[in-house]
Amino acid sequence: MQKTDRRTFVKAGLAVGALGVVESTGLGRALGAATKPDIVAVKGADAFAGTALALAALGGIERFVGKGSRVGLLVNAPPHWQLEGSHTRAEVALAVAKLCLDAGAKEVVTLPPLAPRLWTGALAGKHATVVKSIKECSGKTVETKIPKGIALKSGKARPELLDVDVLVNIPIAKHHVGTLFSGNLKNMMGGLDHETNAFFHSGSGKGGYEDVDFLSQCIADLNTLRKPSLCVVDATVVLGSNGPAGPGDLLRLLKVVAGADPVAVDAYCVTLHGRKPSDVVMLAKAAAASIGRADLGKLAVKEIAL
Question: What is the pLDDT of residue 117?
Answer without folding.
Answer: 67
